[in-house]
Structures are given as C-alpha cells and as structure tokens.
Amino acid sequence: RGAAGLSQDLSGRRVVVSAGGTREFLDPVRYLGNRSSGRQGYALARAAVVRGASVTLVSASALPEPAGVKVVPVVSTRDMREAVLSAAASADAVVMAAAPADFRPAEYVEHKIKKVDDVSAPSVVLVQNPDILAELAHNRPSPGLVVVGFAAETGDASGSVLDHGRAKLARKGADLLVVNEVGATKGFESTENEAVILGADGSETPVPLGSKDLLAHHIWDLVATRLS
Ligand code: CTP
Ligand code: CA
Question: How far is the CA of 193 from the centre of ligand 2 (A)?
C-alpha cells in the first residue's frame, strides 16, 4: 500500500485537498479564526503524492509547502470556495480537510477600528459563509467525482459522535466523512488522530489512534476503491 510507496494506485488521478483554518478579517489587522493547524490536510497531500496523484492543496495554513504539490494559498472561506470549486472541475477526488470559518463579519472596515473611549466596545455582526463541501457534493462538476469531508464531533444529549457524523454525512451529501471525537487531548493540536470513516453506502471503517499520515493513507484507500 501507499505508506510503503509500493502502490501507485492514484497514478494519473487529480486530487484536491483543502487544509487549515480560514480567517475572516474585520479590519486590516484583526480576524476571526480557529484552531486548525492544517497538518491533516498536508498529510493527505503528501500521501497522495506518494501514491502517484497530481495534487492541488488549497491551503489556509502557514505550514511549509510539501514537495511535489501545487499549493493555492487562500485566506477566507469565500477564497477557499473559489479555489476548491475551480480545481474540482478537473479533479477525480476532493478531500475537505480544512476548517473553513462558518461565519464572517457582515462588513469589513477598511481602516483599523479604534477605541473611542475607555469603556465602550463595538459589536460584531456575523453572517454565514457558504458551505463548500455541501455545494460541491450536491452539485458535482462530474458524476464520478469522489467527495470526502471531515467532522470533529462531541457526543451530547441528542446523540453519540457517530450519530452526529451520520447525520452530517447525509446533510452534506458526501461519499465519505472522516469523524473524529474531539476532547481535551484529541484532534486540533495533536500529531495523532483516531477516527471512524463513514461511507454514504453505510460502511464504517474505524482507524485506530496513529499518525495523521496513517489516517491519510486509510482515507486514500477508501477513495481509491470508489474511483471509477
Ligand atoms: N465545510 C465546508 N464549508 C464550510 C464549513 C465546513 O466545506 N463553510 C466542510 C469542512 O471542511 C468539513 C465538513 O464541511 O469537511 C464538516 O465541517 P463541520 O465544521 O463539521 O460542519 P458544519 O456544517 O460547519 O457543522 P458545525 O455546525 O458542526 O460546525
Ligand atoms: Ca463548521
């Protein structure tokens, strides 16, 4: 398999991976952001190169560019949407490993917002960003495009981590959803990941705790079997 560089099962395939947390600027010096490092997306990009794919990495991360990958840098969720939809037009698979900001400030202020006195503070009105994964999955540029999403979930009174994952997979219309349970020590800043990969066909593939590279190869294994 790919981890050993023995299989070129993605040779001749074009894949798109998104990575990192997008930033939504309020003014020239301030933004709303999130904790995504981009490491899982970069691991996916590197693993796809090893397996012979031609890789476009739409990145909102500051990590160093991986070798052999076409990197398209983006800042906001709307930038990421444009770059992903454009690259998806000629792709065989898209994996949305990024954490696009769900909301952005309703308006961007061209100059730095200043304090006007000692006590008052402005309110920030937010509006919802487009959902890139749902748009792409529900409106595929080619019928054979394989679409993969990620979800970091916690269980709560309305359902378990996997219940939330199943519901999200259906809502998004993706082929695969990589579900992580988030807790104090798992997910964001860690170098390791544990996940269950849910398939729209009802499949459930558990991936034990291991490196992000290992998880990346498990994801490409499932993508490869779905490529026509
Ligand atoms: N995603 C996306 N566009 C967005 C938000 C999310 O494409 N505006 C993608 C993410 O890259 C990920 C998947 O959708 O692959 C699920 O992201 P998540 O934040 O879990 O989903 P949301 O629909 O935003 O739900 P939640 O309210 O739980 O944040
Ligand atoms: Ca979200």
Answer: 19
What residues pair up with 148 in beta bridges, in sequence order?
95, 176
Residue in 79, 132, 171 to alter for ligand 1 test, most ligand atoms within 8 A of Cβ: 132
Q: Which atom of ligand 1 is nearest to the CA of 164?
A: 28
Which atom of ligand 1 is found nearest the CA of 130? 8
For 167-198, the pLDDT digits (tens) are 999 999 999 999 998 875 565 667 788 899 99
Instruction: Find the distance separating the first CA and the last CA of the chain, reported in whole Å.
Output: 19
The predicted model scores a pTM of 0.95
Which residue in 219, 220, 137 sits closest to 178, CA to CA?
A: 219
Residue 130 counted as an annotated binding residue: yes
The verdict on ipTM greater than 0.95 is yes
Quickly list DSSP for 39-96.
HHHHHHHHHHHHTT-EEEEEE---SPPPTT-EEEE--SHHHHHHHHHHHHTT-SEEEE
Q: Is 100 in the pocket of ligand 1 (CB under 6 A)?
A: yes
Active site residues: 34
Predicted confidence (pLDDT) per residue in 98-126, tens digit: 999 999 999 999 999 999 999 999 999 99
Query: Nearest to residue 74, comparing CAs of 53, 92, 56?
Result: 56
